[in-house]
Recover the amino acids of this structure.
């Protein structure tokens, strides 16, 4: 499908919230006979392309899975390089995000990061907190099970403090304590790299999201690949528990 057609459809059918599992950096580098860290650095260009394309198409929220709570198990040197890369990208890219009116935030358990990185994240969030064109969320040291457990702990504490009653806990109040609660519902979840799983990412938020899996490795995922995913999304019938006939009516 041509870019023109996709953009015309996007006026009405663009997903308001897209999340991406950015998989394949290491394999991309290995296929070229290079170190895995080279793939992570190349993946930054795909992040730029996806952010730019999503903003131009009118996406309201883009959430990227950068570092899971399980990724600490990777080789120590690779984790160290990823932390340095995160710091570098924060330093270099936040001003560009701010210039384009994009709000930046990080979701996940940040307590394990260095105080210097935590400070850098706080500064980036503060600089962009009033921006309105799109929200870019980076999931770092994040896991869907952690998100759900964290929300449960917050609600439990409120019950113990007599701030709310047990009967006040429902799907709506629980959702309000999860990450991304202030954003539109997740519409489209994309995974690159050829695997068909969501790897503990946005378990609560993905309940009614459309899934799109591609064999394309993340450093090769460009604007056209994102538009292709959106094109496929536009062909889906989203029923939310209803029948096709009900949706058509």
């Amino acid at each position: 499908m041509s870019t023109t057609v996709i953009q015309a459809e996007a006026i009405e059918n663009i997903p308001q919230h897209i999340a991406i599992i950015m998989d394949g950096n290491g394999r991309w580098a290995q296929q070229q006979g290079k170190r895995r860290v080279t793939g992570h650095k190349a993946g930054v260009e795909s992040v730029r392309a996806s952010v730019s394309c999503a903003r131009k198409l009118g996406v309201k929220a883009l959430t990227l899975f950068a570092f899971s709570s399980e990724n600490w198990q990777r080789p120590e040197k690779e984790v160290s390089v990823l932390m340095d890369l995160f710091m570098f990208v924060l330093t270099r890219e936040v001003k560009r995000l701010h210039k384009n009116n994009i709000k930046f935030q990080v979701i996940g358990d940040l307590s394990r990061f260095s105080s210097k990185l935590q400070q850098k994240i706080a500064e980036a969030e503060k600089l962009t907190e009033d921006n309105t064109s799109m929200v870019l969320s980076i999931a770092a040291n994040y896991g869907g099970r952690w998100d759900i457990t964290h929300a449960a702990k917050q609600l439990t504490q409120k019950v113990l403090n007599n701030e709310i009653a047990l009967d006040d806990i429902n799907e709506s109040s629980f959702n309000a304590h999860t990450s991304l609660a202030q954003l539109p519902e997740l519409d489209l979840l994309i995974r690159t790299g050829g695997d068909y799983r969501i790897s503990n990412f946005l378990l609560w938020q993905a309940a009614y999201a459309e899934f799109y899996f591609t064999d394309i490795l993340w450093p090769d995922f460009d604007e056209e690949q994102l538009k292709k995913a959106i094109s496929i999304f536009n062909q889906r019938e989203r029923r939310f528990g209803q029948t096709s006939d009900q949706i058509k009516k």
Q: What stands out?
A: Residues 154 and 177 are 7 Å apart (CA to CA). The first helix runs from residue 3 to 13. Strands lie at 17-21, 61-68, 102-107, 134-142, 188-191, 210-213.
